[in-house]
Request: fold
Amino acid sequence: MTNQNHKHTALRILHLEDSPEDHQLVVRTFKQSVEPVEIKRVDSLADFDAALNESVFNVVLADYRLPGFTALDAWALMNQRQIRLPFVLLSGAIGETAAVQAIQAGISDYLPKEDLQKLRHVVQRALEAHAVLMAKELADVELAQSERQLAQFAEHLQATIEQERSAIAREIHDDIGGSLAAIRFDLSWIERHTTQAESLVHVRAATDMLQHAVEASQRIMMNLRPALLDHGLGAAVQWLAKNFSKRTGIETLVKTQLQTEKLPSPIELTVFRTAQESLTNVSKHAQCSLVRLDLTADRSFITLEVADNGQGITPPGGNQTGGFGLKGLNERAKTVGGWLDISSAHDAGTTVTLMIPLADSAAETGENPS
Reply:
């Protein structure tokens, strides 16, 4: 059952005004409202400060000029105290310059005292605008928090993926690699101890297939866990490009200029995976005849550029198969403080550029890039 005696929460107004007569005019104006209103008058900065300490208000009305100070001083005091309230100037003629200065400072609105009939509307408008501003700031904070959580999740996901890749690579090496080695041993024994020409043909064919399986397992292990990174990022990228060119027939040119031999492991892995994914997208979509990989690093930045002479991305950012892979690379780059840029033009190729600052990354990981 609805409670007919329900009382609305009163609108609490702090009125900064040195004229009791003008204050009474404001009180009478708000008494015409059906909503309950409580108005407290103060006429000095000290009383204004004390009132903000003692009570919670919904809005501030302020005359512009008061003995020894102005409304801008009261506004500055609120900002210093980090108190966020709608602040409406209710004053006599203050001049256009002062009014503009007040609005630029962040004061909600200005109303001349001769327009007092508009006061309730101006206050309501200021309250609504303030509510929208607070909601936007809260949404911005929540969005920033969500983005941080998403970045943390992406970082955790990438770490989990790398752990799984390493585990699979170890299983291939230990189980499949051991089995292939045993098969190679048995085939070699059979080849040495048989004289039947037909059997030798089959043994040699099986040996060729076995060699293909060994190479495939080594390639899969390298893609899963780039052990070549232990010998340096430049060597790993060179291997990646050579393998890509052999597999696809696309000419691949690599240029490396690294002023440091050893980089933090997360950065090396990010660069390697970016080159790997970029080449994968080239093989799937570019329809090109040439790819260039440029890898450079100085004391401040490491930069990877993968450029092809293919058909380009049409339309840019379209829903192509490689899109999610590149978005994943962008998230991976963020985890080490870097960023990814993709430039493309129709029939003019695509360039993927990764840049990672080294000084901040080295400080975070406790490593020295030099």
